[in-house]
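Regression report. Comparing outputs from two consecutive submissions.

Submission 1:
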Amino acid sequence: MRYLLALLTAILQIFFSTLINQLTGLLVRSHARTLSRKERVKRSWVRAIWLVAGTLMLFNPALPVIMIIALPTTFLSFMILDEMQ
């Protein structure tokens, strides 16, 4: 139950921080680089992949299982984000 609660709070924090960033981005024009639609879609894919991987890691919190999930997820994330350039 504790892991499920931690998972839900992490998902809600990510969701609300993304929502707040989008709302403040509409109100205040930042000096940061503007992301294209393609880049935003790729970042959302990576975020979803990490949420699924994190959920799997929380359901089986053994170090070998975490490493088996985390290393390919990291590699996959870098592959997806590297195509943005």
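Submission 2:
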Amino acid sequence: MQKIKKMSLVLMIICLFTGCGKMKGYNVYERVYLTYKNMESFTAEVEVTSYSNNSENKYTLTQYYKSPDKQRSEYSSEIGGSNVTVINGGKGKLVSGETNAEIELDSAALKEKNYLMLSTFFENYFSSEETAVLTSGNEKKGNIRLSAETGSSNPYRKKIELLIDSKTLKPLKMTVYDDKNKPSLCIEYIKFEINKNTDENIFSV
């Protein structure tokens, strides 16, 4: 209830600054809510940039997700190397793309939230008391920018922002910020499909 009141206040503020004749903020939020609140699955191809010690590391991921706890990430890098990570409930494995060797993920790894996954953003967004939704004229083509605090003790995973296309509601870019409000991860979406039928076998562990 408290979260709903806070979100209503945010939407009222948007109305005041954009004019009541431009109630896009409220309508768009409803559409985002209906689209992602009960998301059953998605597939995505993303380019990830990781920032650390004044350096950047780029790689691509093909991601598969099925609610509530099935994930698959296929990793490849420009500098070489590939692997596949699969999580299914309380089990998980890492498979080397070069040797096909499998490593079982321990309980600590399974408990870690995967901030590269869109599902993790919305898990935080819909449960966090500190959320915001903005439709800014400064954003290209009036895209929607959502943000949420992670509640994580990890100093490199303090806040997440998601940029969404206001027409298609597809994600464009997700950014994870550290405790100094500097980007630590940037995930740019190349392809995205929601609630697409996915072969269950790809989540086998």
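Expected: both submissions complete independently.
Actual: both completed, but the second showed a warning that disappeared on reload.
Relevant detail on submission 2: The radius of gyration is 18 Å.
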